[in-house]
Amino acid sequence: MSTTRHLVNRQRRLATVAAERTAAPAPVSKPVDAETVAEEPQDDAEEQKEAKKEAKKEPEKEPEKESAQEEGKASKSGRSPRLRVRLPAVLCVLTVLLGAFAAWAFTSAGSLRDDPSRRNTALTDIGRTSEVKGQITEAAGAVFSYDYASPAKADAAVKKYLTGAAVQQHTDMLAEVRAQAPKQKLVLTTTVTESGVELLDGDRARLIIFADQSNTRTGKSEETTYAAAMFAVDAVRRGGTWRISGIDTFTR
Protein backbone atom coordinates (compact mmCIF):
# COMPACT_ATOMS: atom_id res chain seq x y z
CA MET A 1 0.00 0.00 0.00
CA SER A 2 1.10 3.63 -0.59
CA THR A 3 0.99 4.48 3.12
CA THR A 4 3.56 1.80 3.96
CA ARG A 5 5.80 2.96 1.09
CA HIS A 6 5.82 6.51 2.45
CA LEU A 7 6.72 5.25 5.93
CA VAL A 8 9.62 3.21 4.51
CA ASN A 9 10.88 6.19 2.49
CA ARG A 10 10.65 8.40 5.51
CA GLN A 11 12.57 5.92 7.67
CA ARG A 12 15.25 5.69 5.00
CA ARG A 13 15.62 9.44 4.82
CA LEU A 14 15.82 9.72 8.60
CA ALA A 15 18.46 6.98 8.68
CA THR A 16 20.51 8.78 6.01
CA VAL A 17 20.32 12.03 7.90
CA ALA A 18 21.40 10.34 11.14
CA ALA A 19 24.36 8.70 9.39
CA GLU A 20 25.50 11.96 7.86
CA ARG A 21 25.27 13.71 11.19
CA THR A 22 27.38 11.02 12.78
CA ALA A 23 30.05 11.24 10.08
CA ALA A 24 30.26 15.06 10.05
CA PRO A 25 32.09 16.84 12.91
CA ALA A 26 29.69 19.66 13.09
CA PRO A 27 26.03 19.84 12.32
CA VAL A 28 25.40 21.15 8.90
CA SER A 29 22.07 22.29 7.82
CA LYS A 30 21.17 20.27 4.80
CA PRO A 31 18.38 20.74 2.32
CA VAL A 32 17.37 17.24 3.06
CA ASP A 33 16.10 18.21 6.50
CA ALA A 34 14.04 20.97 5.03
CA GLU A 35 12.76 18.65 2.36
CA THR A 36 12.00 16.02 4.94
CA VAL A 37 10.18 18.48 7.11
CA ALA A 38 8.30 19.84 4.13
CA GLU A 39 7.42 16.37 2.95
CA GLU A 40 6.00 15.25 6.28
CA PRO A 41 2.79 17.29 5.96
CA GLN A 42 2.50 16.08 2.37
CA ASP A 43 2.93 12.52 3.55
CA ASP A 44 0.19 13.06 6.14
CA ALA A 45 -2.14 14.55 3.52
CA GLU A 46 -1.43 11.66 1.18
CA GLU A 47 -2.07 9.20 3.98
CA GLN A 48 -5.48 10.82 4.67
CA LYS A 49 -6.33 10.69 0.96
CA GLU A 50 -5.33 7.04 0.79
CA ALA A 51 -7.42 6.28 3.89
CA LYS A 52 -10.47 7.96 2.31
CA LYS A 53 -9.97 5.97 -0.89
CA GLU A 54 -9.74 2.73 1.08
CA ALA A 55 -12.93 3.63 2.97
CA LYS A 56 -14.75 4.26 -0.33
CA LYS A 57 -13.54 0.93 -1.67
CA GLU A 58 -15.21 -1.01 1.16
CA PRO A 59 -17.92 -3.31 -0.33
CA GLU A 60 -21.48 -2.28 0.25
CA LYS A 61 -23.95 -4.68 1.81
CA GLU A 62 -25.81 -5.91 -1.24
CA PRO A 63 -28.46 -7.95 0.65
CA GLU A 64 -29.47 -4.94 2.70
CA LYS A 65 -29.65 -2.83 -0.45
CA GLU A 66 -31.77 -5.46 -2.21
CA SER A 67 -34.08 -5.82 0.78
CA ALA A 68 -34.45 -2.04 0.93
CA GLN A 69 -35.31 -1.99 -2.77
CA GLU A 70 -37.89 -4.74 -2.27
CA GLU A 71 -39.43 -2.88 0.64
CA GLY A 72 -39.57 0.26 -1.48
CA LYS A 73 -41.30 -1.63 -4.29
CA ALA A 74 -43.70 -3.22 -1.83
CA SER A 75 -44.54 0.15 -0.31
CA LYS A 76 -45.15 1.63 -3.76
CA SER A 77 -47.40 -1.22 -4.90
CA GLY A 78 -49.19 -1.35 -1.54
CA ARG A 79 -48.67 -5.09 -1.18
CA SER A 80 -46.21 -7.15 0.84
CA PRO A 81 -45.08 -10.73 0.13
CA ARG A 82 -47.26 -11.95 2.99
CA LEU A 83 -50.25 -10.16 1.50
CA ARG A 84 -49.62 -11.83 -1.87
CA VAL A 85 -49.61 -15.21 -0.16
CA ARG A 86 -52.85 -14.56 1.75
CA LEU A 87 -54.78 -13.11 -1.21
CA PRO A 88 -55.77 -16.48 -2.80
CA ALA A 89 -57.07 -17.75 0.55
CA VAL A 90 -59.18 -14.62 1.00
CA LEU A 91 -60.60 -15.02 -2.51
CA CYS A 92 -61.52 -18.64 -1.78
CA VAL A 93 -63.35 -17.62 1.38
CA LEU A 94 -65.25 -14.91 -0.49
CA THR A 95 -66.23 -17.40 -3.20
CA VAL A 96 -67.63 -19.80 -0.60
CA LEU A 97 -69.57 -17.02 1.11
CA LEU A 98 -71.05 -15.79 -2.17
CA GLY A 99 -72.08 -19.33 -3.10
CA ALA A 100 -73.78 -19.81 0.26
CA PHE A 101 -75.60 -16.49 -0.11
CA ALA A 102 -76.79 -17.43 -3.62
CA ALA A 103 -78.15 -20.76 -2.34
CA TRP A 104 -79.93 -19.04 0.55
CA ALA A 105 -81.44 -16.42 -1.77
CA PHE A 106 -82.70 -19.10 -4.17
CA THR A 107 -84.28 -21.08 -1.32
CA SER A 108 -85.89 -17.97 0.14
CA ALA A 109 -87.30 -16.98 -3.23
CA GLY A 110 -88.76 -20.47 -3.66
CA SER A 111 -90.40 -20.38 -0.24
CA LEU A 112 -91.90 -17.00 -1.02
CA ARG A 113 -93.31 -18.34 -4.27
CA ASP A 114 -94.80 -21.33 -2.43
CA ASP A 115 -96.35 -19.16 0.31
CA PRO A 116 -100.10 -18.79 -0.40
CA SER A 117 -100.12 -15.28 0.94
CA ARG A 118 -97.54 -14.32 -1.72
CA ARG A 119 -99.69 -15.83 -4.48
CA ASN A 120 -102.86 -14.07 -3.33
CA THR A 121 -104.03 -11.69 -6.06
CA ALA A 122 -107.27 -10.63 -4.39
CA LEU A 123 -106.01 -7.05 -4.07
CA THR A 124 -104.12 -6.85 -7.35
CA ASP A 125 -106.42 -8.63 -9.84
CA ILE A 126 -109.41 -6.32 -9.54
CA GLY A 127 -111.31 -7.82 -12.47
CA ARG A 128 -111.08 -11.42 -11.26
CA THR A 129 -111.89 -10.38 -7.69
CA SER A 130 -115.03 -8.59 -8.78
CA GLU A 131 -116.06 -11.57 -10.90
CA VAL A 132 -115.78 -14.17 -8.16
CA LYS A 133 -117.41 -11.89 -5.61
CA GLY A 134 -120.48 -11.25 -7.80
CA GLN A 135 -121.03 -14.89 -8.81
CA ILE A 136 -120.53 -16.36 -5.32
CA THR A 137 -122.81 -13.73 -3.77
CA GLU A 138 -125.57 -14.85 -6.14
CA ALA A 139 -124.84 -18.53 -5.50
CA ALA A 140 -124.96 -18.19 -1.69
CA GLY A 141 -128.30 -16.40 -1.79
CA ALA A 142 -129.77 -19.08 -4.05
CA VAL A 143 -128.59 -22.25 -2.30
CA PHE A 144 -129.43 -21.02 1.21
CA SER A 145 -132.99 -20.09 0.31
CA TYR A 146 -135.85 -22.63 0.29
CA ASP A 147 -139.54 -22.43 -0.51
CA TYR A 148 -141.73 -25.34 0.52
CA ALA A 149 -143.97 -24.64 -2.48
CA SER A 150 -141.15 -25.08 -5.06
CA PRO A 151 -138.50 -27.51 -3.78
CA ALA A 152 -137.35 -28.13 -7.37
CA LYS A 153 -136.03 -24.60 -7.53
CA ALA A 154 -133.75 -25.30 -4.57
CA ASP A 155 -132.57 -28.54 -6.16
CA ALA A 156 -131.71 -26.72 -9.40
CA ALA A 157 -129.72 -24.12 -7.44
CA VAL A 158 -127.73 -26.89 -5.78
CA LYS A 159 -126.82 -28.44 -9.12
CA LYS A 160 -125.91 -25.07 -10.62
CA TYR A 161 -123.85 -23.49 -7.85
CA LEU A 162 -122.42 -26.32 -5.74
CA THR A 163 -119.66 -28.86 -6.41
CA GLY A 164 -117.49 -31.29 -4.51
CA ALA A 165 -117.85 -31.47 -0.73
CA ALA A 166 -120.23 -28.51 -0.67
CA VAL A 167 -123.08 -30.68 -2.01
CA GLN A 168 -123.15 -32.97 1.02
CA GLN A 169 -122.48 -30.11 3.43
CA HIS A 170 -125.48 -28.23 2.06
CA THR A 171 -127.69 -31.32 2.32
CA ASP A 172 -126.77 -31.78 6.00
CA MET A 173 -127.31 -28.11 6.83
CA LEU A 174 -130.82 -27.87 5.26
CA ALA A 175 -132.02 -31.37 6.18
CA GLU A 176 -134.26 -30.12 9.01
CA VAL A 177 -135.67 -27.28 6.92
CA ARG A 178 -136.61 -29.70 4.17
CA ALA A 179 -138.24 -32.04 6.69
CA GLN A 180 -140.36 -29.34 8.42
CA ALA A 181 -141.12 -27.19 5.38
CA PRO A 182 -144.22 -29.03 4.09
CA LYS A 183 -145.87 -29.18 7.53
CA GLN A 184 -145.11 -25.62 8.61
CA LYS A 185 -145.10 -24.17 5.12
CA LEU A 186 -141.67 -22.69 5.61
CA VAL A 187 -140.04 -20.12 3.39
CA LEU A 188 -136.36 -19.50 4.06
CA THR A 189 -134.88 -16.44 2.42
CA THR A 190 -131.16 -15.59 2.54
CA THR A 191 -129.92 -12.18 1.43
CA VAL A 192 -126.15 -11.56 1.23
CA THR A 193 -125.39 -8.14 2.70
CA GLU A 194 -121.62 -8.16 2.31
CA SER A 195 -118.86 -10.43 1.04
CA GLY A 196 -115.12 -10.23 0.81
CA VAL A 197 -112.53 -12.19 -1.12
CA GLU A 198 -110.01 -13.51 1.38
CA LEU A 199 -107.91 -15.47 -1.10
CA LEU A 200 -107.66 -15.50 -4.88
CA ASP A 201 -105.14 -17.79 -6.49
CA GLY A 202 -105.82 -18.49 -10.14
CA ASP A 203 -109.03 -20.54 -10.32
CA ARG A 204 -109.35 -20.95 -6.55
CA ALA A 205 -110.82 -18.50 -4.07
CA ARG A 206 -112.07 -18.19 -0.52
CA LEU A 207 -114.73 -15.69 0.50
CA ILE A 208 -116.31 -14.49 3.74
CA ILE A 209 -120.10 -14.09 3.49
CA PHE A 210 -122.32 -11.90 5.67
CA ALA A 211 -126.07 -12.48 5.24
CA ASP A 212 -129.50 -11.77 6.71
CA GLN A 213 -131.93 -14.69 6.92
CA SER A 214 -135.68 -14.66 7.41
CA ASN A 215 -137.68 -17.80 8.22
CA THR A 216 -141.42 -17.43 7.66
CA ARG A 217 -144.12 -19.91 8.63
CA THR A 218 -147.15 -19.37 6.41
CA GLY A 219 -149.56 -21.76 8.14
CA LYS A 220 -152.62 -20.81 10.21
CA SER A 221 -150.68 -18.08 11.95
CA GLU A 222 -147.90 -16.42 9.96
CA GLU A 223 -144.71 -15.97 11.92
CA THR A 224 -141.33 -14.67 10.73
CA THR A 225 -138.01 -14.85 12.52
CA TYR A 226 -134.83 -13.03 11.50
CA ALA A 227 -131.21 -13.93 12.01
CA ALA A 228 -127.81 -12.84 10.85
CA ALA A 229 -125.34 -15.32 9.47
CA MET A 230 -121.64 -15.35 8.73
CA PHE A 231 -119.82 -18.16 7.02
CA ALA A 232 -116.96 -18.80 4.59
CA VAL A 233 -117.02 -20.60 1.27
CA ASP A 234 -114.31 -22.05 -0.94
CA ALA A 235 -114.86 -21.54 -4.65
CA VAL A 236 -113.45 -22.95 -7.86
CA ARG A 237 -113.75 -21.66 -11.41
CA ARG A 238 -114.85 -24.18 -14.02
CA GLY A 239 -115.90 -23.37 -17.55
CA GLY A 240 -115.79 -19.65 -16.83
CA THR A 241 -118.18 -19.98 -13.85
CA TRP A 242 -117.39 -19.81 -10.15
CA ARG A 243 -118.97 -22.55 -8.00
CA ILE A 244 -118.96 -23.19 -4.25
CA SER A 245 -116.78 -26.19 -3.40
CA GLY A 246 -116.77 -25.97 0.39
CA ILE A 247 -118.80 -24.40 3.23
CA ASP A 248 -117.33 -23.39 6.58
CA THR A 249 -119.77 -22.27 9.32
CA PHE A 250 -116.93 -21.86 11.89
CA THR A 251 -118.49 -24.49 14.17
CA ARG A 252 -116.57 -27.35 15.74
What order do the helices and strands come in, and which of them pair?
Blueprint: H1 2-23, H2 31-56, H3 62-77, H4 81-114, H5 116-119, H6 126-143, E1 146-147, H7 151-161, H8 165-173, H9 175-184, E2 186-201, E3 204-217, E4 223-238, E5 241-248
Antiparallel strand pairs: 1-2, 2-3, 3-4, 4-5
Helix pairs in contact: 1-2, 6-7
**What is the number of domains?**
3
CATH architecture of the largest domain: Roll
Question: What percent strand?
Answer: 15-25%
- Percent of residues in helices comes to 55-70%
**Class of secondary structure makeup:** alpha+beta
**Count of runs of 4 or more consecutive helical residues:** 9
Q: Could you tell me how far the N terminus lies from the C terminus, measured between alpha carbons in angstroms?
A: 121 Å
Shape: rod-shaped
What is the CATH C level class of the largest domain, in words? Answer: Alpha Beta
Tally of extended strands? 5
> From the alpha-carbon coordinates, what is the Rg to the nearest angstrom?
59 Å
Biggest sheet features: 5 strands, antiparallel
CATH topology term of the largest domain? Nuclear Transport Factor 2, Chain: A
| Strand line-up in the sheet with most strands | 1-2-3-4-5
Mean pLDDT: 77
Query: Could you state the order of secondary-structure elements as H and E?
Result: HHHHHHEHHHEEEE
Low-pLDDT residue intervals, each spanning 5 or more residues: 26-41
Describe this structure in a few short sentences.
With 252 residues, the chain is an alpha+beta fold.
